[in-house]
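hiii, so i know i said id send this last week but things got crazy w the move. better late than never?? heres the sequnce for the chain we talked about at the cafe, plus the structure i predicted for it. fair warning i was half asleep when i ran it
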Amino acid sequence: MNGQPTATPVCQTTELQLTGYPNENYRWGGGRIRPTRVAITTLDDRRSAHLYGTWVSEDGEATNAPADQLYRFDDDWPDWLVALADQHRPRGLTARPGSPATGRDEDEPRADGIDSLRAQRDTAQKQVNSWTARVQELSRMITQREAQDATERTTW
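okay and structure toks below
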């Protein structure tokens, strides 16, 4: 490679807080998810969405139980989620070197080589960080609820 090194964004994740969106069927059993947050990841022409919310029972009873599900690029997405992903599609995100949209210069790295693996690793690390933050948030909520329950028991 000649000249200055370059860095080209190939992946971006956008997290959105949600209110007022319709409940979605839970894909792995009964009940529904009341959406509260979504993380939409765009990599070239592929997108995935990780929907977070609270679980609603089959009879419509809302709970405080967290629920989530992943929508891959080849899954059937709810129309509102497709529209939301389109609305928040990253601007200026270009295709990886070697992808059909750009062709490939012989001096550029291959899309299926080490650069692609690094991009996948970086995306996975972002997901790990997101899950770690979620686990910490849930742990804090559990501790808070346990303290409230203990206080309520002592006031009886």
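btw Helices lie at 79-87, 114-154. thought thatd interest u
miss u guys!!
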